[in-house]
Amino acid sequence: MTPETIAIVKSCVPILQEHGEALTRLFYQRMFTHNPEVKPFFNPIHQQEGTQQRALATAVLAYAQHIDNPAALSSAISLIANKHASLMVKPEHYPIVGQNLLAALEELLGDAATPEILDAWGEAYGFLAEVFINAEKELYEQQEWNGFKDFTITKITQESSEVKSLHLKPVDPITFTHIPGQYITVRVPHPNTGTTMRNYSISSIPGDTLRISVKQESGDPDGWVSHQLHTLTQGDTLEVGPPCGDFTFTPNQHDSHPLVFVAGGIGITPLISMIHAAAKVQPSRPIHIVHAVRSNEARAFAADLQQLTKNNKNTTLHVFVENTSKADTRGENYHTQGRPSKEALAKLVPDNAEVYFCGPPEFMHVTTSALDIAKIPAKRRHHEFFGPAQGIS
Question: pTM of this prediction?
Answer without folding.
Answer: 0.89
